[in-house]
Design goal:
Helix 5 (138-157) links the parallel strand 5 and strand 6. The protein contains 10 helices and 14 strands. 39% of the residues lie in helices and 18% in strands.
C-alpha cells in the first residue's frame, strides 16, 4: 500500500482526490491549514499546519511517504492582483518549504496542481502544452514560477514531478457530498446555482463576443475527472521516474449562456439575467488540447459533460445550503 501526503487535501479538488485515493487503496495523510478547507469531509488523518511555517512540516515525521500531491495554494487570479506578496509567498515559498522537506525526508516525487493561467491569452486554440507561457496575473505567474522551481529540484536532487495544468474545475463528487465552497465565490457555476436557489439576478459579463451565442466559451472539467488524473500521474511517476506536464481539459468548451441554460434546466428554476459589459482581459474562447494527457497518462474525462457537471453541483449545493 502506497502512502501519499496530500497538501491542501481538505479543499475542493484536494478532498475529492483524497476520497478517490482511499477508494483505490492508498493510505493518505492530509496536511492543511484549513484556511479554505473543511476537515469534516475527510476520512483520513489530518495534520494541521501551514507550508509557510517549515516547523509545521516536522509534525509529519512519524510518516514515511511514497509521494506527494500538492494542492495547497491561493488560487484567485483577481485577488492575486491585489495581494501579490501573499500569492508569491504562499504559492512559491510555501511550495519551496515543501520541497526542502521532501528532499530531507527522501520523498521521491510530487504531483503539482498547476493551471492553464500560466499561458495567459493563448495564441492558438485549442491550447497545447507548447503554447507560450505569458501569465496575465500574479496567480498564473506564481504557478509558472513554481513549475520552474520543480524543474531545478529534479535536476539537482532528483525529485520527480508531474505538473497538471487545469482548465476550469467544476462539479461536485458524484454522491453530492463534497463540492465547491469558496468565500467569496467567483466561479460561474456556483454563482448561477445560487441565483437559481435564491431567485437572484445573475451578472452576465459580455454578450457581444465573436462566438455563436455572443458569450465567452471555456473548457470545464469535472472535479472527479481531475482527481483521477492525479492518481494516474502518481502511477506514471512510480513507473517511469520521469518528470512531465499535462493540460487537463475536455478538448472543447461551453459558453456562459449554455452554463446558465443548463442550470435552469437542472434546477427547474428561472432567474433573471443582468447583462453587463465585458470584463477586461477575458478572451472569447479558450479550451484545452488534451491529446497528451490522453495518450501518455491514459486519461479520459468521463464525467465532464455539462449535464453531469451541473447536476452534481446542484445536488451538493441543495444538500448543503
Amino acid at each position: 500500500m502506497k502512502k501519499i501526503l496530500v497538501t491542501g487535501g481538505a479543499g475542493y479538488i484536494g478532498s475529492i482526490t483524497v476520497k478517490r485515493l482511499l477508494e483505490q487503496g492508498y493510505e493518505v495523510v492530509v496536511f492543511d491549514n484549513l484556511s479554505q478547507g473543511h476537515k469534516e469531509v475527510l476520512s483520513c488523518p489530518l495534520v494541521l499546519g501551514d507550508l509557510n511555517n517549515p516547523a509545521d512540516l516536522e509534525k509529519l515525521n512519524d510518516h514515511t511517504f511514497d509521494g506527494v500531491i500538492h494542492f495547497a495554494a491561493a488560487a484567485l487570479a483577481g485577488e492575486s492582483m491585489q495581494k501579490p506578496a501573499y500569492y508569491f509567498q504562499n504559492n512559491i515559498m510555501g511550495g519551496l518549504n515543501l520541497l526542502e522537506y521532501m528532499n530531507k525526508r527522501k520523498i521521491p516525487s510530487i504531483v503539482f496542481s498547476s493551471t492553464c493561467a500560466i499561458y495567459g491569452t493563448p495564441e492558438k486554440v485549442p491550447v497545447s502544452e507548447s503554447e507560450s507561457k505569458k501569465p496575465e496575473s500574479v496567480y498564473g505567474e506564481s504557478k509558472l514560477a513554481y513549475e520552474k522551481v520543480l524543474y531545478w529540484y529534479d535536476k539537482i536532487f532528483g525529485i520527480k514531478n508531474i505538473c497538471l495544468r487545469y482548465f476550469n474545475a467544476c462539479g461536485a463528487s458524484l454522491d453530492g457530498s463534497i463540492g465547491e465552497e469558496h468565500n467569496p465565490e467567483t466561479h460561474i457555476i456556483p454563482i448561477a446555482i445560487q441565483a437559481a436557489m435564491h431567485n437572484k439576478s445573475f451578472p452576465l459579463f459580455g454578450t457581444d463576443y465573436p462566438t455563436p451565442d455572443g458569450t465567452c466559451i471555456r473548457d470545464y472539467i469535472h472535479v472527479e475527472d481531475l482527481a483521477q488524473a492525479h492518481i494516474l500521474a502518481l502511477t506514471r511517476l512510480e513507473e517511469t521516474k520521469t518528470s512531465d506536464f499535462f493540460n487537463l481539459g475536455t478538448g472543447n468548451g461551453y459558453s456562459n449562456k449554455e452554463i446558465i441554460d443548463m442550470v435552469k434546466k437542472v434546477s427547474g428554476k428561472d432567474f433573471p439575467i443582468e447583462s453587463k459589459p465585458r470584463r477586461a482581459g477575458d478572451p472569447s474562447i479558450i479550451y484545452a488540447d488534451n491529446t497528451k494527457a490522453k495518450s501518455v497518462l491514459g486519461w479520459t474525462p468521463i464525467h465532464s459533460d455539462l449535464q453531469t457537471i451541473i447536476s452534481t453541483a446542484w445536488k451538493f449545493h441543495t444538500k448543503n445550503s
